[in-house]
Amino acid sequence: MPGYYIICIENKTEYFQRMGAYIQGEKIGTWLMTFFDVNWEKLDKESLQVIENDRTCDPLSDRYYDYFMKLKNELCPIHPFLDILISDKFMGEMFSDMPPILGQPCQTKEWDYFQAIKQGSPPPVIEDELLRHWLHYIHDCFDELAELQKMLLPEMEYIMLQEDPARKTILEKYYWVRTRNHSAYEIYARSQYQNFQVSFELMKNNILYNCMTPDCEKPKKMEANIFLTTDSLVAVTILEFDNVCARNIPMQHCANCNRWFVRKTKNNRFCSRPSPQNPEKTCQEVGPNLCYQEKIEGNPIADLARDVKKRVYEQAKRELANKPNAMKIYNIWQLNVDNLKEKAESGEITYDQFAQAVDHSGAEVIRNHGELFPYDPIV
Q1: Which residues have CB under 8 Å from 102's CB, separation 6+?
Q2: Domain residues of the chain, as ranges?
Q3: Whether the Cβ atoms of residue 49 and residue 63 lie closer than 8 Å to each other
């Protein structure tokens, strides 16, 4: 039984269906993040290269096998919707081309090839015609998704990121995108909504309730929701985009990896996905420190201010026993350094003037503070 993509509007959750079971995924917006992560245009071109690359000595059977296994290994772990696209949609197209005998696939080389791909075992050599048909099917799917990405990206940038005095909320900007004259997106979206099947289902503990659901466990949570189901990845992407915008769910680029993510708080700047610098840590974990390092890197004013403050602080600690007000001197001195730093960064004074005022040894500052900063009384 093929897999399906499912969105429940009422509880704002993604689902997918396999073997007749509804499996709960993440909240709405998670697939949209993944959709914009994938370089669909690159995938589209790679599928064409496999079709057109006849100059190699390798038979098309081997090239197709290597290409398809690469797709499975790279895309399927990213999101369940991609797993359904590769393992169910693409494999389903291959299965549909198996000639049946009395309802069962014929034991041919083509059937052995299909099983080899399914199991990841070495495939036999088959005729190129069927392989080219499968490749064209994959190419057409990637081409449609690449065109959708090109259509949605500028709309996404406008709705989520751009300031518009006439339309301040996400919903207001989305409404304008949908209703402006001859909107290509409006026409395309309406055509895709015809691919959905509507159902009203009971959920028990986040599991689809039916006659096969065991009743031994007392339900902790019962729901009755409307589900929109489709086998079209394009249609479910449009539905999710529309719902994110219509519900004013904010999305933005991660300040570290630049990928789209759902912003849960106003000050949230980093996503929770593995960071490109260290896949074992998320962008939320490594992002703030990296941004700080990039901010101060190559800034001689900030470098000098940081170094001299550290220098004077260490000296103040050493002299506390003999000079009880040493730490107070440091605190007032660092305020002066910060004030001069702001003036230097704004161009009010030059770097040389800033360095002449603050670049002193710790002992010199603690012992001669009155000469260095005569306008700051030290009690």
Answers
A1: none
A2: 4-245, 250-295, 298-372
A3: no
